[in-house]
From TrEMBL:
InterPro entries: DHBP_synth_RibB-like_a/b_dom, Sua5-like_dom, TC-AMP_synthase, TC-AMP_synthase_SUA5. Its EC number is 2.7.7.87. This is Threonylcarbamoyl-AMP synthase. It catalyses: L-threonine + hydrogencarbonate + ATP = L-threonylcarbamoyladenylate + diphosphate + H2O. Its main location: cytoplasm.
Length: 189
């Protein structure tokens, strides 16, 4: 089913996120849902739309490493652990990093860490830049369903719950980003 919402520009999507809205957008491999991670109401709306348990935590995606500084405690990693993550960015790799004490449970879930990525998708990087900080990035599917590789695979329930669909397409990867533990380097997903 194709969406009734018109495609919005990256600039329009950044403004919608800034106003507390939910945006459907292409990432490297799948279509994602995003919002302002510091807006509790927006995040809770996103979690309810996905039917996702808050305890699992969410991924934050950024256009630049500095946009993650408010959320992660880089000082808890040694130089090599930090460098290992930085070498993969911008890119298709998400890293689980210890979070700052102020990181709310609606982002970190039951963890003392947060999953973060500096995206290689130019439109998403620009959206984060125009928004001025990282955004939530979770696949645009109901919690029990597969991640959508194409816009046509996004369910009617998800489409009905977003405020905009960002122009663009995925970068063609065939899965969500790979997730690594920053302390060990181990692949988690």
């Amino acid at each position: 089913m194709m969406p009734n919402l018109p495609r919005a520009s990256v600039t329009q999507c950044a403004a919608i996120i800034a106003c507390g809205g939910l945006v459907l957008y292409p990432t490297e491999g799948v279509w994602g849902l995003g919002c302002d991670p510091s807006n509790e109401a927006a995040v809770r709306r996103l979690l309810a739309l996905k039917q996702r348990d808050e305890a699992k935590g969410l991924i934050l995606i950024a256009g630049a490493t500095a946009q993650l500084d408010a959320w992660v405690d880089w000082s808890s990693l040694d130089v090599e652990q930090h460098a290992r993550a930085l070498r993969t960015w911008p890119g298709f790799h998400t890293w689980i990093v210890p979070c700052r004490q102020a990181t709310p449970t609606w982002i970190r879930g039951r963890h003392d860490s947060v999953a973060v990525r500096v995206t290689a998708h130019p439109a998403v990087a620009t959206m984060c830049s125009q928004f001025g900080k990282a955004i939530v990035s979770t696949s645009a599917n109901l919690a029990t369903k597969p991640s959508p590789l194409h816009l046509r695979e996004v369910s009617a329930e998800i489409l009905a719950g977003v405020d905009a669909i960002c122009e663009g397409e995925t970068l063609g990867y065939t899965s969500p980003s790979q997730i690594h533990d920053a302390a060990s380097g181990a692949i988690v997903r």
